[in-house]
TrEMBL record:
<comment type="pathway">
    <text>Amino-acid biosynthesis; L-serine biosynthesis; L-serine from 3-phospho-D-glycerate: step 2/3.</text>
</comment>
<feature type="binding site">
    <location>
        <begin position="237"/>
        <end position="238"/>
    </location>
    <ligand>
        <name>pyridoxal 5'-phosphate</name>
    </ligand>
</feature>
<dbReference type="Pfam" id="PF00266">
    <property type="entry name" value="Aminotran_5"/>
</dbReference>
<dbReference type="GO" id="GO:0004648">
    <property type="term" value="F:O-phospho-L-serine:2-oxoglutarate aminotransferase activity"/>
</dbReference>
<dbReference type="InterPro" id="IPR015422">
    <property type="entry name" value="PyrdxlP-dep_Trfase_small"/>
</dbReference>
<dbReference type="GO" id="GO:0005737">
    <property type="term" value="C:cytoplasm"/>
</dbReference>
<comment type="subunit">
    <text>Homodimer.</text>
</comment>
<dbReference type="GO" id="GO:0008615">
    <property type="term" value="P:pyridoxine biosynthetic process"/>
</dbReference>
<feature type="binding site">
    <location>
        <position position="172"/>
    </location>
    <ligand>
        <name>pyridoxal 5'-phosphate</name>
    </ligand>
</feature>
<comment type="function">
    <text>Catalyzes the reversible conversion of 3-phosphohydroxypyruvate to phosphoserine and of 3-hydroxy-2-oxo-4-phosphonooxybutanoate to phosphohydroxythreonine.</text>
</comment>
<feature type="binding site">
    <location>
        <position position="102"/>
    </location>
    <ligand>
        <name>pyridoxal 5'-phosphate</name>
    </ligand>
</feature>
<keyword id="KW-0808">Transferase</keyword>
<feature type="binding site">
    <location>
        <position position="152"/>
    </location>
    <ligand>
        <name>pyridoxal 5'-phosphate</name>
    </ligand>
</feature>
<feature type="binding site">
    <location>
        <position position="195"/>
    </location>
    <ligand>
        <name>pyridoxal 5'-phosphate</name>
    </ligand>
</feature>
<feature type="binding site">
    <location>
        <position position="42"/>
    </location>
    <ligand>
        <name>L-glutamate</name>
    </ligand>
</feature>
<dbReference type="GO" id="GO:0006564">
    <property type="term" value="P:L-serine biosynthetic process"/>
</dbReference>
<keyword id="KW-0663">Pyridoxal phosphate</keyword>
């Protein structure tokens, strides 16, 4: 069997050591005689898995004690509704920053529950940058400010964390969580779908400050109440147990590498190598402001788009898969999350140089 270098934006690659460990434990976890997929979520065996996963995530991210860590379902898209349902807390107005496709989806959903003020937008330049902070038009009475630190489709990333004072800062970190250290204490709430840097699709992580939960909008479904999940250790209903287990293995893998500081160094090297290849060529181009380029999602175009199909076919033949750009922007996109080894980026860069030499 030959594994490919999978550049998918998500579901994405998982670390091979994690997959090997899961394979080893597939039929019998720790002498229980059963797979994790067969365990009761309330049994001692799975409870130990769940507790270890939360403990390791808290260690990795240095999560303060006054934050709850929730292992939920519904993806980041469910959080687009859960955030205003839980965080309005008697207020009616919220601030959102629009930097691309996922910001827009969050804004559209929030408008069902609140008066949304778009405090800043980079629509004018095609979502190829981050709005300068001094241009933001924030509300005086906002319940929170929401932003998307990394836009998976457009490849735009905030190189800084907004300073919001007493207004809770909310971040959709689906595509950047665990890619580098982050000061959790600067946020009121962080949420992330698992399928990029955490584990398989189906699990969602929410990290929320305790004082922000317990006052939901009237009519909020029980399953959308953070306090319900916090009070029940994320087991009010049957959680995505196998996804939780695999996430725990990813956390162990990261700790074994040296934590998020070590992971950040690897990710920065990978991104720099790919951007250097793009910038050093007249054949490839990236439209994003260099100051706001994503470490995780690297879109690029060919000088002659008629060659796109050939590029993708040849790349796939070499085991470089899922490079086609999102349909809304076209071109190519290489997602190089934590599990993408440096060897995969080097193989892509070598192919790009060879393709340019033959077709340029």
């Amino acid at each position: 069997m030959t594994r490919v270098f999978n550049f998918s934006a998500g579901p994405a690659m998982l670390p091979e050591p994690v997959l090997e460990k899961a394979r080893e434990e597939m039929l019998d976890w720790n002498g229980t005689g059963m797979s994790v997929m067969e365990m009761s979520h309330r049994g001692k065996a799975f409870m130990s898995i769940a507790e270890a996963a939360e403990r390791d995530l808290r260690t990795l991210m240095e999560i303060p004690d006054n934050y709850k860590v929730l292992f939920l379902q519904g993806g980041a898209s469910a959080q687009f509704a859960m955030v205003p349902m839980n965080l309005l807390r008697g207020k009616k107005r919220v601030d959102y920053v629009n930097t691309g496709a996922w910001s827009k989806k969050a804004i559209e959903e929030a408008r069902k529950y609140a008066d949304v003020n778009v405090a800043a937008s980079s629509a004018a330049d095609g979502f190829n940058s981050v709005p300068a902070f001094e241009t933001w038009q924030r509300s005086e009475d906002a319940a929170y400010l929401h932003y998307t630190p990394n836009e998976t489709i457009g490849g735009v990333e905030f190189p800084w964390i907004p300073e919001t004072g007493d207004v809770p800062l909310v971040a959709d970190m689906s595509s950047t969580i665990l890619s580098r250290p982050v000061d959790v204490s600067r946020f009121g709430l962080i949420y992330a779908g698992a399928q990029k840097n955490i584990g398989p699709a189906g699990l969602t992580i929410v990290i929320v400050r305790e004082d922000l939960i317990g006052e939901t909008l009237a009519g909020t479904p029980t399953m959308f109440d953070y306090k319900v999940h916090a009070d029940n250790d994320s087991m009010y209903n049957t959680p995505p147990t196998y996804g939780w287990y695999l996430a725990g293995l990813v956390f162990q893998w990261l700790l074994g590498l040296g934590g998020l500081k070590a992971m950040a160094q690897i990710n920065e090297r990978k991104a720099r190598k790919l951007y250097d290849a793009i910038d050093g060529s007249d054949f490839y181009a990236n439209p994003v402001d260099p100051a706001c380029r994503s470490w995780m999602n690297v879109p690029f175009t060919l000088a002659n788009p008629d060659l796109d199909g050939e590029f993708l076919k040849e790349a796939a033949a070499l085991g470089l898969t899922t490079l086609k750009g999102h349909r809304s922007v076209g071109g190519m996109r290489a997602s190089i999350y934590n599990a993408m080894p440096e060897a995969g980026v080097s193989a892509l860069v070598d192919f790009m140089a060879d393709f340019e030499q033959r077709k340029g």
